[in-house]
Amino acid sequence: MLANLPKPVEEVFKEADPAASPASWAVRYVASLPNVMIVLSGMSSEAQMLDNLSYMKDFKPLTEAEREVISKAQAKLKSIDQIGCTACHYCSPGCPVGMHIPEIFYVMNFYKLYGDVERAKLDYSFRPGGPKASACVKCGQCEGACPQHLPIISLLEDVAKTLE
Ligand code: SF4
Ligand code: SF4
């Protein structure tokens, strides 16, 4: 996720430095923290290795202005409407149809972040497991159990409309 940002967040970084990759911000952020000696970065191509080397072989910690860019990006990320599910699973054990509620919301949040409906539909087809959102019988058990007071029934209706 740090390397493949939601578009509005990526735009904040691109505006600040069009040449810098999203990954470079993440790696430099970590490397700028006090007492960090080594940063491990997963790389799956030569291009990613060259990108990492381009800013780490002559490493410069983040400047104050760059930290502000990161704060702006954080605010942008928070402003994207998402389902505030913490995946605590209090809702699911009592569901009469065995709905995997937090797993369904995870996929829906992916859609809300990236806007890629085809990818989200594909994820939805296998990742949550259990019945589809449209199988909800609206008994209300889950809403009574949710510490976040989420309107789970109507959220599931949205999921069914969007991803089924
Ligand atoms: S309202 Fe729907 S999702 Fe919630 S417990 Fe009842 S059947 Fe399950
Ligand atoms: S109880 Fe609420 S917050 Fe917890 S997993 Fe279920 S929907 Fe998410």
Features:
164 residues; mainly alpha; elongated; binds iron/sulfur cluster
3D architecture notes:
By secondary structure, the protein is mostly helical. The chain contains 8 helices and no strands. The longest helix is centred in the middle third of the chain and has 16 residues, at 64-79. 16% of the residues are buried. The site of one iron/sulfur cluster has 14 residues, from helix 5.
| Number of DSSP E strands | 0
Ends apart, CA distance between termini: 25 Å
Choose one word for the global shape.
Answer: elongated
Task: Report helical residue fraction.
Answer: 40-55%
Q: Compute the CA-based radius of gyration.
A: 20 Å
Largest sheet: none
Ranges with pLDDT <50 over ≥5 residues? none
Given helix and strand content, the structural type is mainly alpha
Question: Which small molecules are bound?
Answer: iron/sulfur cluster
Overall average pLDDT: 95
Order of helices and strands: HHHHHHHH
Q: Report the sheet-strand fraction.
A: under 5%
Count of DSSP H/I helices? 8
